[in-house]
Amino acid sequence: MGTRTPGHGPKRPNGAREAEILELLQRADGALTPREVTERLGNELAYNSVVTILTRMHAKQLLTRTPRGRAYAYAPVTDDPGFAARRMRSVLEERADRQDVLARFADGLSTTDADLLRQLLDPGQ
Question: Which of 18, 41, 72, 116 would be a feasible disulfide site paired with 65, CB 3.0-4.6 Å?
């Protein structure tokens, strides 16, 4: 039971696999094909599983893809801070009470973060 066969890594939630692949792509020097992703994961996942995950991530607009030979090469649409900002915007856009949400968010900021946010919102200060 403790053995692992190539292409059949331990069962993990899709979100964890996506995060792992996203991190791998962010560290890469450029876009990677599914075969390259599979190899860099140590053949822990089957090639078809990697293709499925990359395709889903592309559909979620987390990745761009460009043709390379007979496959696509995938790259993240932004860096890690960019993804965090997208998540924050997404949460805010889901809410009808934006003002209340922003007020609660601002109330929870440290003095340092509040000062930084002021500088970012009004660079001419």
Answer: 72
